[in-house]
Design goal:
nine-stranded mixed β-sheet, 2 domains
Length: 287
């Protein structure tokens, strides 16, 4: 179904936001838009909602399975504002948010649905799930000059770091970490400081007063924690070509990067087991 605006969607499809989990996908461009939608449909979301400009084309068969809302996703604050409007409209519902050319993975996602994942997570009294944004990139920029190649994707097998997160008075925040690594770490000179973190609370349960902030954290501190106080919880990964796209589309960086590959690059297998083996997501107590 196609809607002219979020208000139009809420008027004509109010039941869509009544039951989750719901995927909110934002199309900054049309790169790998179809594959992004198909991936999240396979994960078992109750609804997949995509925000994109009118001129972006989708296959009729695919468009019939999703809710399409007209939106120009630039500047970047538009995304945060839209997520917050959805939060306000649907308290109690689980959401995922991400961008085109990004793919959500979680432990055992090949055989278990996202609904099963969040049912278990809810039983552990968690209302949010931390994710690492794992940078993907094409193995050959001469062949794939925009850095995007799902069938020839690489990722960094090492070089990920955790730093204690501090409050405005310099005190460490409990169970909160700033994560770095991937392309944002290796090409940090090309990326603004505030965009280098790779932690994102990608899955969360909406509640009254909750706000997503422009740094991908929430105004509720517990939502920004990686686990509860008594044991490790599940975490997820968002495998993303977004940094590669940005570095190769920016005239200030594209000519300085002949290749994204380095000695620690490995082919991405598109399997949750690989991400767990690399320590990029945590199965917690979910066996």
């Amino acid at each position: 179904m196609r809607y002219d605006s979020l208000e139009h969607f809420q008027k004509w499809a109010p039941s869509t936001l009544a039951q989750g989990p719901v995927a909110l996908l934002f199309a900054e461009d049309d790169v790998e838009l179809d594959s992004t939608l198909r991936h999240h449909l396979r994960l078992g979301f109750k609804s997949v909602i995509v925000f994109l400009p009118d001129q972006f084309a989708l296959e009729a068969e695919l468009e019939a399975k999703i809710h399409r809302i007209t939106l120009n996703c630039a500047p970047r604050d538009v995304v945060f504002d839209t997520v917050n409007r959805v939060i306000k409209a649907a308290p109690g519902v689980w959401f995922y948010y991400g961008y085109n050319a990004e793919y959500l993975f979680y432990p055992f996602c090949e055989t278990r649905s996202v609904e099963e994942l969040l049912a278990f997570h809810s039983e552990e009294r968690r209302d949010s799930m931390m994710a690492h944004v794992v940078d993907l990139y094409a193995d050959d920029l001469d062949v794939f000059p925009n850095g995007v190649a799902p069938n020839h994707a690489m990722l960094d097998s090492t070089g990920y770091y955790a730093h204690a997160r501090h409050d405005s008075e310099g005190q460490p925040l409990e169970r909160q970490l700033d994560m770095s690594g991937g392309l944002r770490w290796r090409f940090e000179d090309q990326i603004p400081y505030e965009r280098r973190r790779i932690d994102r609370v990608a899955l969360f349960r909406a509640r009254k007063g909750l706000l997503l902030q422009p740094d991908h954290t929430f105004n509720e501190p517990e939502y920004n924690t990686y686990s509860c106080p008594w044991h490790h919880n599940l975490s997820a990964a968002v495998c993303s070509f977004r940094a590669a796209k940005a570095l190769k589309s920016n005239s200030g960086s594209t000519f300085d990067i002949p290749s994204f590959r380095w000695c620690k690059s490995v082919p991405f297998e598109w399997k949750s087991e690989q991400l767990m083996d690399l320590g990029l997501m945590e199965p917690g107590q979910w066996f």
